[in-house]
Amino acid sequence: MNALLAERVAAVATGVTTPCVIVAVAVLLFLNPIWVGFDQDRSDVAGLTGYTPAQVRAVTGSILSDLVFGPPNFDVTLPGASAPVLDASERSHMADVRKVLLELGIFALIAAVLLAVVGVEGRGRRSLWRAAAAGARVLTVGVIVVGAAFALFFDRAFELFHEIFFAPGTYMFDPRTEKLVQLFPDQFWSETSVAIAAAVLVLAVAVAVVAGRLGSESVGMPGAPVTGVPR
To answer: What percent of the chain has pLDDT over 90?
Structure first.
């Protein structure tokens, strides 16, 4: 009975952590200067900010560095300028963004470690592969629904995202005068959201297919129990 309960708990943990890890991997694929610079060019950020492309890259690189590595000062200043590119409210919001990103990153890391531990301890068990496949399939449906909502109602979905993670009044900026929303305009976020959703979908489908096959074919794999607890 204890073995059966342990296997069920492991299966639930696998089903829950698999989508978390897939989403984290997909987000990491786009949290880099290459993608950001590419989509900023598509969004004509140089034209919106009045900066040269080199200045856009320098400012964005500093913001990304503060976001990922810290410290979260976000006080990059262009040569010859007397004030930082971002004003106090923009810097405060970016500090909030970093806090949320770190919290989600820690959650994803815990999920990845738990998934790895469960995978090592129960390697070869069909029940765990089936649980991973189930989690990936649920994520596939979820990303299609959420992706459709963002595609059809981007402004409202983007606002709802901010309402969930940030305090009211801390994320509204004037695109005519404030650089944060000029550096990262709506087009940038809409295209990045679509790209992340597509990456999640591809990864989830791949995991669902591979884990589903292993879940039905892993009998006889090294470490797979042959007798005892039902599979």
So the answer is: 67
